[in-house]
User: Fold Mercuric transport protein MerT from Ideonella oryzae.
Amino acid sequence: MVSQGLPATPPARGLGALLAAGLAALLASGCCVAPLALALLGVSGAWIGQLRVLEPWSPWLLGGALLALGLAAWQIYRRPAQDESCAVDDPACGQTRRGLRRWFWVVALLTAVPLLLPLVAPWFY
Assistant:
């Protein structure tokens, strides 16, 4: 007996690595970029100074973000194999891949901010 349920959603290959890269980039920027962004938004308080606790972990988190971003790029941008469950001409798969590619570049920009901030910060002092 064949089930007539909803069609299966296409596999989101690379989503886990992309989420890990985004989380690591957010935590890496938590010591330096987040207090500045919160101050620009008008959020203040003594608790913002506690975000400096993340500063020693920032290089490690950035390294993890770059590794996860590389893994996500490899999983998202490589050609799908013929034996995967998602057909190449399936429009749902194309939409999923396009959405993941857009989010990949958002996370890549998010990762670039704490990497480039030490280079750009002296211009503002």
Remarks:
- The helical segments are 15-28, 33-40, 58-77, 91-120.
- The mean pLDDT is 79.
